[in-house]
Amino acid sequence: MKALESRTAAVTIVVAVALAYPVIVLAGGGPHFPSIRDCEQPATHDGNIQLVFGRFDSGAEANTVAAHAQSIGFVATTATIDNCGRIVVAASGYTTVSGALDAVKEAEGAGLNAKAEFAP
What we know:
By secondary structure, this protein is of the alpha+beta class. It has 2 domains: 1-32; 37-118, Sporulation related repeat (Alpha-Beta Plaits), CATH 3.30.70.1070. Helices cover 47% and strands 21% of the residues. It contains 4 helices and 4 strands; from the N terminus they run ααβαββαβ. It has a 4-stranded antiparallel beta sheet with strand order 2-3-1-4, with helices on one face. A hairpin with a 5-residue loop joins strand 2 and strand 3. The longest helix has 26 residues, at 2-27. The protein is elongated, with a radius of gyration of 24 Å. 20% of the residues are buried. The model has no long low-confidence stretch (mean pLDDT 84).
């Protein structure tokens, strides 16, 4: 009889946990997936800033923009995948907002769209 009671207690605990876990997770609003706002954080103060030339779905388009940025002097330009699954072409190494904004003007003068954002 004790073996049956032990087995019943074990099954009860497993079922309780299996039912409680989803309730606890969903109580916090469910899983969070990054939105575009989570991936784009405009630089508002000095810190680790990057100059973003764009976000792309196509590797070919991203590579074209990265090559153009490198050809006009933004040699630290790379193409990486962000947390939203898009390809980001950006030049890193900026520490001040004013320096990054000067670089934005330079990039725009060369025909590139650019934004100063906090680096991930």
